[in-house]
Amino acid sequence: MKSVEVPPADELTAGWWAATREHRLAVQVCDSCAGVQHPPRAVCTHCGRSDRLTLQDASGGGEVDSYTVVHQAPAPNVEVPYVIARVRLDEGVVLLTRLEGREDLESWRIDERVVLDWVDLPDGRALPVFRPHSAQWLVTGPREGDAT
Ligand code: ZN
Fold this sequence. Notes:
The structure is a single chain. By secondary structure, the chain is mostly beta strands. The chain is built from 2 helices and 8 strands. It has helices at 14-20, 137-140; strands at 26-30, 36-37, 53-57, 61-70, 82-89, 94-99, 113-120, 126-132. The strands form 2 sheets. A 5-stranded mixed β-barrel has the order 4-5-6-8-7. Strand 1 (26-30) and strand 2 (36-37) form a beta hairpin. The model has no long low-confidence stretch (mean pLDDT 90). Zinc ion (ZN) binds next to loops.
């Protein structure tokens, strides 16, 4: 992928970023109410009380919640166009990410199944991106029943 702007890890996100080095996409799970949240926070947003939150690996599957094609580079070293998306993970949380693997950037569909892939960063971390669930979709579009 082209150059991207990536924030540094901080106290809250250090564990999440560490997992990306092993290509593991983590979500925070509340030890108290089992609520799932992303991005990592200090307190559970579901029960509003517990700060006992454990990072667990996500399945890597999800659906496109919304997306937009970026034509104007946010920084001089970023290549455009590219696709920014909200992907709803199978765990129920939304991840702000990129969609890759399509030549026609406008051809993504809302609720389309996508799968996790990784783009390695120079500092050893990796960025989660998502690709079409089936390569066949590139040619034929989704089949009936693929969305489940
Ligand atoms: Zn909770």
